[in-house]
Specification:
mainly alpha, 12 helices, 2 strands, globular
């Protein structure tokens, strides 16, 4: 197999690994506490997020919780309705960093996620984690193709996460009466996160697919982990926020 093709395949695999870690660990477990992970599995996700994204979980959770508190109104960190579609799609990471480091958002929205000793030693050092991740790719592929794979992964991960916020509040279906949108094509690419209207309708649901013919790959992974007793699902049925009457709660 040509090395460039191998680098692309590895980059796609690492990106999907990062996206599944983001939706299961950062989003459903940490931010909304929709699931509880066993200590060992939680540790694995912590390491994966650190080495593939450099994200600090309490910062990600705080910014996301603020997004739910101020959805598409003044105070929303990344609303395309307020900031414009292309600014959110192309500069989502910068918008995230600005709010995460404003000295207020993390303190207010992540009080339940104080840093522990492992954060101090390892996980708060983003460059160290990213450096280790890139180093592993370079060892496996050679430094040239390791860097190519790292770059492809970084661009894909940033653009797909931005699309959740940009497309997820600008284009798509709205089966529930909130300003978010569903895009099944995006859900396939982002481990279920494209079902954004569903998520805003029932934020504490571990399952983002709430109707027939909707597919949530992240939920499939959670089901497998629950079968292995690696995760506990908080709610068996979605709990809808006020004003979001359910269309259907059938399992796809």
């Amino acid at each position: 197999m040509p090395k460039l093709l191998l680098a692309v395949i590895v980059a796609l695999a690492v990106c999907q690994l990062s996206l599944f870690s983001t939706t299961v660990y950062l989003h459903r477990a940490i931010s909304h506490k929709a699931i509880t992970l066993s200590p060992g599995v939680r540790w694995v996700f912590r390491v994966l997020i650190w080495m593939t994204t450099g994200i600090r979980p309490r910062q990600w959770a705080a910014v996301h919780r603020r997004h739910h508190a101020y959805t598409d109104v003044v105070g929303d960190p990344h609303s395309p309705l307020l900031l414009g579609f292309w600014r959110v799609q192309l500069a989502n990471a910068a918008l995230y960093r600005r709010v995460a480091r404003d000295g207020e958002t993390v303190q207010r929205y992540a009080k339940d996620l104080p840093p522990d000793r492992w954060d101090t030693l390892l996980f708060d050092h983003a460059l160290l984690g990213l450096g280790l991740g890139i180093g592993i790719l370079c060892l496996g592929l050679g430094w040239e193709y390791g860097l190519i794979a790292s770059a492809i992964h970084a661009v894909l991960y940033l653009m797909l996460n931005a699309a959740i916020n940009a497309f997820g509040h600008a284009f798509g279906s709205q089966p529930y009466p909130n300003t978010a949108r569903n895009n099944q094509w995006l859900a396939w690419l982002t481990a279920g996160e494209g079902l954004h209207n569903n998520h805003h309708a029932a934020p504490t649901s571990a399952r983002l697919s709430l109707a027939a013919r909707q597919c949530d790959p992240g939920w499939w992974l959670i089901r497998v982990m629950a079968w292995r007793h690696w995760v506990t699902v908080r709610l068996e049925q979605p709990r809808f926020v006020q004003g979001n009457a359910p269309v259907t709660t059938s399992t796809p």
